[in-house]
Write a structure and sequence with these properties.
The chain is an alpha+beta fold and about 120 residues long. About 45% of the residues lie in helices and about 25% in strands. It has a 5-stranded antiparallel β-sheet with strand order 2-1-5-4-3, with helices on both faces.
């Protein structure tokens, strides 16, 4: 398992390499925060629980629709976007972006971090 310092380092890379990141978190599939860099006013507990729920429901939808394995889930709001991606069997990567942030850059960076987590854990 990765150390807290390693997880924080990977999250800091996301914040540093993607313009417009508001919050970033690594969450367990059980809905607990492993590590987070959150903007003021965001609840770690609520974010972790909702992230795990989003991932679980999204996977079930794809399974039911015979649409394969989840790559990522995007929630687009008029003031920001929320992206959730699996990072190994037990961890989930979640990023909240400004509405005008580059999604392609975010996907690339999130995939890199997800692969780093998978290779270490």
């Amino acid at each position: 398992m990765m150390s807290d310092e390693q997880l924080l380092f990977l999250l800091q890379n996301i914040v540093d390499n993607i313009d417009g990141v508001r919050s970033a978190a690594i969450v367990s599939t059980e809905g607990l925060i492993a590590q987070a860099i959150l903007e003021d006013g965001i609840s770690e507990i609520k974010l972790a629980a909702m992230t795990a729920t989003i991932l679980s429901v999204s996977e079930k939808v794809l399974l039911e629709l015979k649409s394969g394995i989840l790559d990522l889930c995007i929630l687009q709001g008029n003031e920001g976007n929320f992206i959730v991606m699996e990072a190994g069997k037990e961890l989930i990567l979640a990023v909240c972006l400004d509405v005008d942030a580059r999604m392609d850059t975010c996907f690339i960076e999130m995939r890199k971090v997800s692969e780093d987590i998978k290779s270490i854990s």
